[in-house]
Amino acid sequence: MKILFPALLAAVLCGACAAPPAAPPPPSGAADTPDAAATLARIRTLAAHNSCSSSSQCHSLPLGAKACGGPEAYLPWSSASTDGARLQALAQRYQAQRVKENAGLASDCSMVGDPGAVCRAGRCQADGAPAAAQ
Description:
Radius of gyration: 26 Å
Order of helices and strands: HHEEHEE
Shape: globular
Structural class: alpha+beta
Low-confidence stretches: 12-31, 130-134
Strand order of the largest sheet: 1-2
Largest sheet: 2 strands, antiparallel
Distance between the termini: 85 Å
Oligomer: single chain
Helix content: 25-40%
Number of helices: 3
Mean pLDDT: 79
């Protein structure tokens, strides 16, 4: 009996130690947080309403984040027909998502220049792009 009790106690304690820890609960709102692809789709949908009457209404929005810094691309948008604050907030979220996704990755470290944006045929377009290209 003296040997049986310590052996039983040791077996119970070892079994408790071997149990895998419970997974932590997901952060609140995690199901409501879209992934980077969904965020980019929302940005493109919002910026697609890019009608303008002058180039002063056209802007270029830096998108994403390259692994060694700087945006991945620029997107033309219109302050005449787009909620700029909402667009900027989505762009910041997308940048943070891309920084997280790119952690530890290599990049060519090439800089993507801001092409600017102009009003052509009533729509904001990247400066230097042919009117029919966008």
